[in-house]
Amino acid sequence: MADTLRVALVQMTSTPDVSDNIAVAEALVHRAVAEGANFVLTPEVTSLVEPNRRRLLAKVVEETADPALERLRRMAADHGIWLLIGSLPVRVGPEKVANRSFLIADDGAIVARYDKIHLFDVVLGDGTDFQESRTYLGGREARIAASPWGKIGLSICYDLRFPQLYRAYAQAGARLLTAPSAFTRVTGEAHWHVLVRARAIECGAFVLAPAQCGLHAPGRESYGHSLIVDPWGRVVGDGGDEPGIVVADLDLAAADEARRKVPSLFQDVTFELT
């Protein structure tokens, strides 16, 4: 198992145009490969951001017919890299979509799939109303996958607010936690850095969080700031608020060192609430 890894996060502004989004993702993955990345990650809803439910349902297809999945799998194989497709909206019924993340090996094989468990049903203070459960079907199973760099725990966006998921991954041996996201500007400015850093510190793990940024369509804006955070909670890469890539070299032994220094991951205490 390798202890060093050059990782790259792709930050983009996906739109309602699937073809354009795929082309942008491919170009940014190519840039990451040119900078020597072994593991590249794209953000949540890489292939499509469509706020209108009717138009979204008209555009999504089943996994086997998804052009983004096919092209990005081929790209991983052609360049010999591991690739996390942060998520694609995948049709799973006449009126339902899964928000699905794909971990792709360097031969193009799908190593793991993860459907977003926690759906973003909120009413924000600026009057915006998000009800993902109207369209999306929440996942029921956490996913941890083997890689050349050890175990990887998969999550998506709003999952970040549920620390028990990441603790379970870390206790099962994951040193890398992925959190591809499309945080809104309102929630991102308030909570994004704090949440990503907290998950890294609590778990003694690297958190890799590629993000959407900018204005996707009227009424939908994402915060950006793709983050690479080390097991001590230090931000070692921040994508700012423009499309691009973030690259960092990781020494994965830092996870073991952090867990030795602060062994809280393995100090669960049973208590009663009275």
Give a description of the structure.
- The protein is α/β, with parallel strands linked by helices and 274 residues long.
- It has a single domain (4-262), classed as Carbon-nitrogen hydrolase (Nitrilase/N-carbamoyl-D-aminoacid amidohydrolase), CATH 3.60.110.
- The chain is built from six helices and 16 strands.
- It has helices at 18-34, 53-59, 67-79, 163-171, 185-203, 253-261; strands at 4-11, 39-41, 82-93, 96-104, 110-115, 121-123, 129-131, 143-147, 150-154, 174-178, 206-209, 213-217, 220-223, 227-229, 235-238, 244-251.
- The strands form four sheets. The chain has a six-stranded mixed beta sheet with strand order 5-4-3-2-1-16, sandwiched between helices. A six-stranded mixed beta sheet has the order 8-9-10-11-14-15, with helices on one face. The protein has a two-stranded antiparallel ribbon with strand order 6-7.
- A hairpin with a 2-residue loop joins β8 and β9.
- α1 runs parallel beside α3 (67-79).
- The termini are far apart.
- The model has no long low-confidence stretch (mean pLDDT 96).
* CATH architectural arrangement: 4-Layer Sandwich
Q: Find the count of extended strands (DSSP E, 2+ residues).
A: 16
**Tally of helical segments:** 6
Instruction: Give the strand order of the largest sheet, numbering strands 1, 2, ... along the chain.
Output: 5-4-3-2-1-16
Note the main attributes of this structure.
274 residues, alpha/beta, Nitrilase/N-carbamoyl-D-aminoacid amidohydrolase, 6-stranded mixed sheet, 6 helices, globular
